[in-house]
Amino acid sequence: MVSLRAVTFMAAVSLCAADFGYTTTDDYYTIDTDAGLVFTVRRNMYSVSLWSVGDLGAIIYKGQDLSVPTKGSHVNSGFDFLYEYTSDVSLDIGMVGNDAIKVTVTAGNLTQYYMARRGESRIYLANYFTVEPPINNHVRFIFRLNSSVLPFGPTDSDIRGNIGFVESKDIFLMPNGETRSKHYSNNRLKDWSYIGAGGDGVGAWVVRGNQEGGAGGPFWRSLLNQGTDETQEITYNQHYSHAQTEEFRLGVLNDFTMVVNDGEDPIPSDIETSPAWFSEMGLLGYIPPSERGGAKGSIANQKADKAYTVGFKNSKSQYWADTFNSEFEATNMMEGEYLVTVYRGELEVYMQEGVVITAGTTLNLGSITIESDPNDAVVMWRIGEWNGQPTELLNGDLVTDMHPSDVRMAEWNIQNFYVGVDTSSQFPAYMWKDVNSGLAIHFSLTEAEAAIGHQVRIGITIAYKEGVPTIAVNGWTGEQPTATGQPDTRSITTGSYRGNNAVFSWNVPATAFVVGDNVMTVSVASGRGDVSFLSAGISLDCIEFHASALTLPPTPAPTPAPTPVPMTNPPGSFADGMYTIYNVEFGMNMDIVNSSTENSASVELRRASVYNSQKWEVIGIGKDFYKIINVHSGLALDVYGKSKSDGADIDQYTYKDQNNQMWRIEEAETGFFIMSRRSHFYIDVDIDSVPSVTTQGANVWQWRKVEGRATQIWTFNPTTRFSSNSTTLLFWSNLLFGRPLKRGLPKSTREVLRLRPSLVVRVTSTW
């Protein structure tokens, strides 16, 4: 027997697109966008834990339902379960003018809006609340979509095929030893603009708003997705209890947009945050552009190769802006008084209070000089870099994407570290009381250096279970510091190192040191915690050792220990050099569209030519990873948008020392695979972007590894730079081919060079 719930649901999903407008039944509002998208909002509730009045129900695109019949999409666990004192939810729907529809859901102190615009296959969402929902202690909208229709979501959070739990019933083990979890879909707030999943000719994406009413700042991380056998759960977090470092902001209109299309990634810049037509919608908390202001300025002494972010915050709102050529500008800000913070990486290096933003104006903060960058201090030795991140340390590039026990992680318990021999990338990014506490750092002191006291400083980015670092130098033991204020939730095992940056320092007396070899033991102390990776732990930023100013005698400063040499890839790995990168399936080289020198220009395949846009500098950066720089543009091979999804474009971009610009070159039977350090996907070619494998212009993208797929196999062919002013090249070109070289070599090139190999050296030496 079919239940009433099933009947009404099937009736809803059978709807086909008609004209723009809405209809009402006892169970649903049904909204037709007149753009192929029809969606429903539930008006009635049955005794189902994952259904609630006010839920998004069916989401039908071109006749295909993307939703899950047994589950709704809603805030937290449902609108009737937000506040302890209310289970009543009220709904209202109406046309606004001729081109907009608004559904209003009121549940206690929270108001949720769903909006549609004529001719747009989008659902505009916004909410406003004055009291944080106490039952879940967060606010997040969960879109529960059908994974059989939308199977392609982020890999790191796809738990299909797992063999059991690793931790807390939300981190899973895969048969190959890798770990997956919804937590590993995280990304820094400033780094992502949309999330979603795709399928056969369809995609569903959530484009974020400006998050001015969120909490945690530009580097806050939270889960975004979970893929199961039944659902793709796309989660839009505004406030989340995990690893939260700020009080929640209330009384702010927060908006975001669901885009449904034929499967292509959305272009976030085409989807305006708080668009102008919102002013006509009667939304609580809406502030028009005319009542907003901005701020701009520059960083006088910004390090050219470092990333800087300028943050603005108060109790009501938050904003941020990246620097470009040392300049920054934040726009569309609420009026008010703000704290301005300049971050190098994620480390605070400058703060200014009392900055007032006024509507209709852009405040010029002038040129800011950073005077408290700890990296400027002269030290005897340093492990890591002061940047508020553990990314340059051992496993630091992996900790946001997998559990510490993952088979892809290097051994955490290294036991010994030798200053001047080992590099920062060999020191663990995380330390736990029960895993790798008691790590010995070996360093040498001269007689003069051992005769004075020294200061040791250790920076952390977050701590779990009140973990703190402690030190012992030879026979001397430093005082255990007091725990710092940190989030009281899991963090370092769930993909987030972002907490409250803290620095601990010890003045070590001269009596602790000896001439020659010294050993400093770094441990983790705490009275709390469990065992193994859930024992008390810390995420390290930097460890440094320098002379204590108060104990320095009036003699020249001691000679610093040698600075560790930046890590390069070991002998026997892929050799640095200049190459053309040739696709085995297509028989063409990797090139830049239109030989562009612009950021975000796409990579494509073209027939071999002498031009530098087909030439790439492959440079080892350590741990068998490489940066790959286009010779023509000087820009780095890059995964567009730092995506972890199948089909994300490969483009070029200014090298930022980020994981989406780092590549592992893995040997294959007939060439090499090229794996992204960020996504763990492989550079591939979209075979459907051209009519056949003989056609130029095929799009280069990333895709999960597929055994036997020739489009994922590349060869690296040594080459040298082409100079367009080379008279020698012109001479040899005329000699060999009877005419100057143009865009491509003539078809006879390969045969000529095979028959006249002595000419190859002479010609290529000038290219």
Structure report:
The chain has 767 residues and is mainly beta. The protein contains 5 helices and 50 strands. The strands form 13 sheets. A 7-stranded antiparallel sheet has the order 7-8-9-10-21-17-16, with no helix packed on it. Strands 39, 40, 41, 42, 43 and 50 form a 6-stranded antiparallel sheet that branches. Strands 1-2-3-4-5 form a 5-stranded antiparallel sheet, covered by helices on one side. Strand 7 (90-96) and strand 8 form a beta hairpin. Helix 4 crosses helix 5. The longest helix is centred in the last third of the chain and has 11 residues, at 727-737. The termini are far apart. 45% of the residues are buried.
Give the SSE map.
Elements: H1 4-13, E1 21-24, E2 28-32, E3 37-42, E4 56-61, E5 64-65, E6 74-75, E7 90-96, E8 100-107, E9 110-117, E10 122-129, E11 139-146, E12 164-167, E13 171-173, E14 179-181, E15 187-188, E16 194-199, E17 202-207, E18 221-222, E19 225-227, E20 231-239, E21 254-261, E22 292-299, E23 308-313, E24 318-322, E25 327-334, E26 336-344, E27 347-357, E28 362-368, E29 381-384, E30 416-418, E31 430-432, E32 439-445, H2 447-450, E33 454-464, E34 468-473, E35 476-477, E36 502-508, E37 516-525, E38 537-547, E39 577-583, E40 588-592, E41 603-606, E42 616-622, E43 625-630, E44 636-639, E45 650-653, E46 663-668, E47 671-676, E48 682-685, E49 700-703, E50 714-718, H3 727-737, H4 749-755, H5 757-764
Parallel strand pairs: 22-28, 30-32
Antiparallel strand pairs: 1-2, 2-3, 3-4, 4-5, 6-11, 7-8, 8-9, 9-10, 10-21, 11-20, 12-13, 13-14, 15-18, 16-17, 17-21, 19-20, 22-25, 23-24, 23-26, 26-27, 29-38, 31-38, 32-37, 33-36, 33-38, 34-35, 34-37, 39-40, 39-42, 39-50, 40-41, 42-43, 44-45, 46-47, 48-49
